[in-house]
Amino acid sequence: MLKRILVVLVIGLLSVGCGGSKKATRSTKRVKKTRTVVRTNSELDVEEAATPDDNLDNGVNPVPKGGVDGYIEQYAAIAKEEMELYGIPASITLAQGILESGAGKGELVQKANNHFGIKCHDWKGQKVYHDDDTQGECFRKYSLPKFSYRDHSLFLTGRKRYTDLFKLPKDDYEGWAKGLRRAGYATDKKYPQKLISLIERYKLYTYDGEVLGKAVEDYDKVTDNNNQHTVRKGETLFRLAKKYKVTVDDLKKWNGIDGDNIFEGQVIYIKPFDRGY
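The structure corresponding to this sequence follows.
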């Protein structure tokens, strides 16, 4: 009798335990979160127009190796494309990029990928503040260098004060260099000569020729080494005039120099010539 009672109790307990052991199932459906990225019109104008370049997409703020030569190698293809699309000489674009960005090593490039020193103006995209003519000025910021190049083209083509530049021959880098200064792109009086010196020292005009289908020989009359002198440290106009048996006034006239100062690395023409424009 006792055994029968114990068996009944055990069976009862087991049946209760089994019935209560059902695990409640929970819905584990995951809700996929979506993120909306809002871009301003100014950013879209630049980013949608720019052509991707895998070599430049690998990192933000890439610093070219090898100084100026490295900069040219890295950005020449973009400058040529901008010339094809917008008519700005590739030589001018590269020279401005080298000069304004310190060949890719300047602070503004590192902070904002801004290769041309373009200030905010009516910009609605990202911004950074940087000391330039005055303290804490507002400059445009780009996610990649190629967008800075595209915005440079849009900046020049979209403003009436630069209209006359586009009437020049597409490889007239001297006319462009002087025209940019007259139009107010830069306040430095030596800006045109600095651009011209870079173009001729590094033969950036060859990229204009590639876009226009011209041979390098077509530019020989401009870059004949017998016609120019690259300024060395400590040299002055007076010393160069004496060396080449010309007058200081002639050197100023042939090179478009207003004052008496020249800088190391500047290319100086030491006799008159016909540019053929």
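Residues 13-60 have pLDDT under 50 and may be disordered.
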